[in-house]
Amino acid sequence: MDDDAIAEWLGHRKPASELPPAPRLRRGEPDSDPADRPTRTPRRRTLSTQAIVDAAVRVLDAEGLDALTMRRVGQELDTGGASLYAHVANKEELLELVIDRVIGELELPGEPDPARWEEQVKEVVRSTRAVLGAHRDIARACLARIPLGPNALRGSEALIGVLRAGGLPDQVIAYACDLLPLYATATAYEESLFETLGLEHDQLMRHIGDIREYFAALPVDRFPNVASLAGPLTAGSGGDERFEFGLDVLVRGLASLGPGG
Amino acid sequence: MDDDAIAEWLGHRKPASELPPAPRLRRGEPDSDPADRPTRTPRRRTLSTQAIVDAAVRVLDAEGLDALTMRRVGQELDTGGASLYAHVANKEELLELVIDRVIGELELPGEPDPARWEEQVKEVVRSTRAVLGAHRDIARACLARIPLGPNALRGSEALIGVLRAGGLPDQVIAYACDLLPLYATATAYEESLFETLGLEHDQLMRHIGDIREYFAALPVDRFPNVASLAGPLTAGSGGDERFEFGLDVLVRGLASLGPGG
DNA sequence: TGTTCGAGACGAACAGTGTTCTACGCGAAC
DNA sequence: GTTCGCGTAGAACACTGTTCGTCTCGAACA
């Protein structure tokens, strides 16, 4: 996606390509038409929306979402935070751009195949979790807004495709289109919590062991279930089993709403 | 829960009741034993952890999570933010107390009934969503940590009970004990996003209408699925249908892992 | 070639945040 | 009656997003 497409998606300029600007939520009065801003070549320093998003992703990957401040991104570009506001309306807009950039890395399945639609659905959700997990705690930012950027649309398009291959009713497909990414994002967020704290893997394992002991040591008269399930409750937190379990539950539930269920 | 139990759960004093302190995640070196702080009757102003949590919940309900600052809570108690630090280690600890207070409002089902365990599971998840939704955007804070307070344990205990009535395998129950609250919390969070922005109901409906038109107007050659599903994709966002759909999918998926599935 | 013009860069500043430091005052104990 | 020390609370620190106003410099025009 080039610079013009970005500006157009954000509604900054007149739509020059075929994709209309996504509806944006504003609190105040509707702003006046910002259409007739003439296109200029950049002066002095080559500061552009592209370069800013690039720098933001760099900061995000290296130091996490909390370090992604306007000043820090500006510093990455050898300037101050105030300079970004000529290319980006505010931090919210920058985050939306970063999110859609990240979602653009999604690996989507090819042609929808009715014979293996369930596995294809899982592939999309797995890819979403993987992409979000690859960029530190970006999942936290994704949870706080509904992605409507072009790359998010591309993902929805593919997801609907494979769900349709499963022969599910339209309304089921539509709801699933929210539910499945919600699961991927929420899971990625939970998993990012620990590495955000800077925990090493063995530290995390030790903490989970503490929780297991805590559960097991609970008074059995008040917490018999938690105490007896201390082991299973704290199992599978390090790898993919927990995630795969939830994914399986979701797809099984969806399949039960289809023609074969 | 009284003040001593709170302090004990947080590991501030020697355990006096039967519930041992929950494992807390700390980054730095393990702190020295803070056990031998003598109990004193309060001086001057009657500032206590209880009163602080009360005030925090009041601020949360009235003005939302973003307004829940240390200074604002202090102001609610006719003092400054610094005064709270004598009773609460930091904002994180205050949030944990607030969260467990809120979770304490959960209405849990009675005796687990194998004949209607699925409906009982749904009741727990519905109650979770309702309680979180009743306290503005507290769900955002719940997503960011794993609740291990006494009231959260009470909820897990009840949830495991009804899942056991369903005859599910132990590991399925354990994973479901994470998955179901995750769904309730993530849903409550998404729903809180709009009211956090201060949107009225008709404003929200208008915005959803904008999104529907945006979907419908997308180029059909690139986004045929999204364009044709514009209606269903944006349906049911105002009420409970979306939530109930996801809940049904989850419970169906869980049931398929049980003895009858 | 000289001038004008204005968009963009950017330092300073503002109102916030969580947290720490420090001095002060009051209630209980000896 | 004095002393002791805990809890209070104001000031301050480092940080945030954002705005304001100044200044610079490249392009367009005469």
Low-confidence stretches of chain A: 12-17, 27-43
Strand content of chain A: under 5%
Oligomer: homodimer
Q: What is the succession of H and E elements of chain A?
A: HHHHHHHHHHHH
Task: Please identify the structural class of chain A as seen in this structure.
Answer: mainly alpha
| Cα shape of chain A | flat
Tell me the number of helical segments of chain A per DSSP (H or I, 4 or more residues long): 12
N-end to C-end Cα span of chain A:
41 Å
Average the pLDDT over all residues of chain A and give the rounded result. 87
Tell me roughly what share of residues is in helical segments of chain A: 55-70%
Q: How many strand segments of chain A?
A: 0
Pair with the biggest interface: A-B, 70 and 70 residues
Nearest-angstrom radius of gyration of chain A? 22 Å
How would a textbook summarize the main sheet of chain A? Answer: none
Written overview of the protein:
- The structure is a homodimer of 261-residue chains.
- By secondary structure, chain A is an all-alpha fold.
- Chain A has twelve helices and no strands.
- In chain A, helix 5 runs antiparallel to helix 7 and helix 5 runs parallel beside helix 8.
- The longest helix of chain A is centred in the last third of the chain and has 27 residues.
- Chain A is flat, with a radius of gyration of 22 Å.
- The two termini of chain A are 41 Å apart.
- Chains A and B meet through helix 7, helix 8, helix 9, helix 10 and helix 12 of A and helix 7, helix 8, helix 9, helix 10 and helix 12 of B.
- The structure holds a DNA duplex (30 and 30 nucleotides).
